[in-house]
């Protein structure tokens, strides 16, 4: 078991600036987180609302970018497809444990044999503690405590205990009011790196937008490749992103402005 909290939380804050619009889209590769970035976070994952203009906006952006747009999210690819139907974009799902490339090819890490046991133990723990929600994700599992934030430390401690029982090949990933158990050596930065080695992303400059600790590896990948990283949110937590937008509504406006629609 490996706790990836320290790996994804940068040691110090860096300067944040309001992002300028890209001067040229033809050499850009756009990677977008979903919850907290394109859409507002809801009390539970199944209660999110997709703004009616978002799906056609993403479709127009993808066409303008020659298909070099991907969603990079903690959700499963199948869930993303349902949320954004009828649009089907390239997706890094479950933080990169699932990949769907621009040509429709699918790639996924094996499901860990201990994940079913861990999921059942988390469900039992959630049933005994009000305000907890377990979200199975196929290759990962998350436990949310947004409805009872006071339980955050207890949730993290319990997840560590459950995963520590001789379990190798899994990592614990804390996030915003959530703790997730996912395959080891999987993160959004690695997923974006894989996309950048495939068409139509090859040779393009990455622009990554996200809001959570899980997006920090993506910011690092973008920065290392001479790209741009935009953190969404008003909090002052440390980040490796070098630009910021205040909320998902501002993200949607900024993306529309990229197309000259604002």
TrEMBL record:
Keywords: Hydrolase, Magnesium, Metal-binding
Example of a GO MF term: trehalose-phosphatase activity
The species this protein was found in: Terrihabitans soli
Annotated gene: otsB
EC number: 3.1.3.12
Biological role: Removes the phosphate from trehalose 6-phosphate to produce free trehalose.
Name the UniProt record assigns to this protein: Trehalose 6-phosphate phosphatase
Annotated pathway: Glycan biosynthesis; trehalose biosynthesis
Region (Disordered): 220-246
Cofactor(s) this protein requires: Mg(2+)
Catalysed reaction, written as an equation: alpha,alpha-trehalose 6-phosphate + H2O = alpha,alpha-trehalose + phosphate
Family membership noted in the UniProt record: Belongs to the trehalose phosphatase family.
InterPro entries in UniProt: HAD-like_sf, HAD-SF_hydro_IIB, HAD_sf, OTSB-like, Trehalose_PPase
GO biological processes: trehalose biosynthetic process
Pfam families assigned to the protein according to its UniProt record, in alphabetical order: Trehalose_PPase
Magnesium listed as a keyword: yes
């Amino acid at each position: 078991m490996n706790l990836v909290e320290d790996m994804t939380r940068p040691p110090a804050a860096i300067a944040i600036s309001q992002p300028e619009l890209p001067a040229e889209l033809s050499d850009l590769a756009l990677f977008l987180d979903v919850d907290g970035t394109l859409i507002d976070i809801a009390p539970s994952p199944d209660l999110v609302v997709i703004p009616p203009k978002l799906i056609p906006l993403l479709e127009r952006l993808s066409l303008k970018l020659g298909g070099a747009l991907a969603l990079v999210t903690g959700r499963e690819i199948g869930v993303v497809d349902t949320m954004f139907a009828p649009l089907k974009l390239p997706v890094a799902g479950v933080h990169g444990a699932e990949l769907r490339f621009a040509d429709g090819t699918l790639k996924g890490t094996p499901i860990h044999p201990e994940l079913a046991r861990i999921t059942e133990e988390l469900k039992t723990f959630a049933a005994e503690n009000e305000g907890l929600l377990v979200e199975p994700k196929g290759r990962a599992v998350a436990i949310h405590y947004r409805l009872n934030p006071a339980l955050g430390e207890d949730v993290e401690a319990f997840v560590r205990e459950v995963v520590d029982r001789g379990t190798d090949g899994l990592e614990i990933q804390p996030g915003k009011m959530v703790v997730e158990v996912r395959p080891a050596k999987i993160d959004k930065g690695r997923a974006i790196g894989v996309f950048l080695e495939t068409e139509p992303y090859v040779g393009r400059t990455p622009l990554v937008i996200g809001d959570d600790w899980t997006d920090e590896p993506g910011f690092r990948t973008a920065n290392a490749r001479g790209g741009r990283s935009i953190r969404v949110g008003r909090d002052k937590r440390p980040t490796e992103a070098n630009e910021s937008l205040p909320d998902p509504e501002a993200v949607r406006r900024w993306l529309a402005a990229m197309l000259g629609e604002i």
